[in-house]
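Reopening: HTH lysR-type domain-containing protein still failing for me.
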Amino acid sequence: MIDGDLAYFLTIASTGTLARAAEQLGISQPAVTKAIQRLERKVGVTLVERTARGSVLTEAGKIFHTRVLGVSMQLDSALQEARDIGGGHAGLLRIGATPATTSFALRSLFPTLLVERPAARVNVTTAFSDALLDAIDRREVELAVCPLPDTLDASMVKEVLYDDHYSLMVSTGHPLAERESVTLEDLVDCAWAASSRQEFARVQIEQAFAKHGYPRMRVVAEANSLAALFLIVSTTQLVSLINARSFDPGPLPFDIAVRPIQLDGLLRKVGLIRRAGYLSPIAQRAQEILRSAAREL
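Support: Ran it again with your exact input. Result attached.
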């Protein structure tokens, strides 16, 4: 793991201000400033400039940041690999899944993984896609099963497992619950309960609205959990999205109705996301099991 002045430099680059970097690092702002000055003296060029909007990297700083970040990732991978070989973390799988992919991921992995590796420990994080990406970046999650974004940070890699179509989720008292299926045009005048603005499902449905020339979605309520969306939808006339293929319909509340959306191309690719580089042995095996399960869908 990169530490010292280089770590301070990486933190400034990611937070954008000296104040936020100092808060994240747990040190004073003058200490961060001195660290950057020391680093700049060693490098021989200015790396960070302070502006009215915060701290920005110079052109030299951007190139230096790319190189240091790559070295940091390689060093982190080397440390994790050494721990795995030493046995300290060889049996720990840190896996993430969205509310819609949790059922697929856990039904695929259990009991196979624990039968094969009785000493294994599994830590499961359930969150929407944007939060899972943050968890991967912080190395709190090693492998995530989630919708795949069109673009991904260079520090991460993705792999498609299967395609998943969207469905509409409404209360049983909503007029659209009487339909066998709905079109995008049916949703134009609806009020929505949605996940965060950065979550892939919301991004994709907003893009579909824009592509067809429809007004922007009218989002009345936002929630960061499927349970919260269930509660909001079941007690209001708001509509929301769900991916019925990967979600186990058994636990659906009795007052929730799910209807397919008829629109060619409105689907998302679900797959695996992880950091580039080293992958622990147990995560490699989990990846193989998930691939096999996806082929059987």
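Residues 89-163+269-295 form a domain with the D-Maltodextrin-Binding Protein; domain 2 fold (CATH 3.40.190.10). If you still see a failure, please send the error message rather than a screenshot.
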